[in-house]
Design brief:
Blueprint: H1 2-48, H2 50-57, E1 65-66, E2 69-70, E3 72-75, E4 80-83, H3 105-114, E5 118-125, E6 132-142, E7 146-153
Antiparallel strand pairs: 1-2, 3-4, 3-7, 5-6, 6-7
Helix pairs in contact: 1-2
Length: 155
């Protein structure tokens, strides 16, 4: 009976507990990478100014695009000022853009940034897969007029 319990415990540990721990670890790794990218970009903005920073953030081959993570910046009116995932978005007002669930993602990001920042989940077009996917983003205020953020897609 003890051997059966031991085998059962080993099975549970190997096939149930371990994958859960790995998923949780990947979750925290993604979140830490996103926040690190946002804080690095924020420092760059304060050091080099908005014009140079926005150009650097929108460079698809630049240091602020890491795999499928990229920096985006919006002003509080919803105009995109930088986007490493899709530089063609720069200059477009996305304030009234709705996702497929009727939510206004940019308005959600603006509200969160105005409250000091944090995590927001919404639907957005993944520049890699070209599909609308759930996205989890970390945003924070950037000066008094902008928000800066990055996020990861959940396939």
């Amino acid at each position: 009976m003890k051997k059966l319990k031991l085998v059962l415990f080993a099975f549970l540990a190997l096939f149930i507990i371990t994958p859960t721990i790995v998923c949780a670890k990947n979750y925290w790794i993604k979140r830490s990478r996103v926040k690190s990218l946002v804080y690095s970009a924020t420092k760059y903005f304060h050091r080099y100014g908005k014009n140079q920073a926005f150009a650097a953030f929108s460079d698809r081959r630049g240091k602020f695009v890491r795999g499928n993570l990229y920096i985006f910046v919006f002003n509080y009116n919803g105009v995109c000022k930088a986007n490493g995932g899709n530089p063609r978005m720069v200059g477009r007002n996305q304030f009234e853009h709705r996702d497929r669930h009727g939510n206004y993602p940019i308005q959600l990001l603006i509200r969160k940034a105005k409250k000091g920042g944090g995590w927001v989940t919404y639907f957005w077009k993944n520049p890699v897969t070209k599909k609308i996917e759930p996205k989890v983003s970390y945003v924070k205020p950037l000066g008094r007029r902008f928000l800066i953020g990055s996020g990861y897609y959940i396939p």
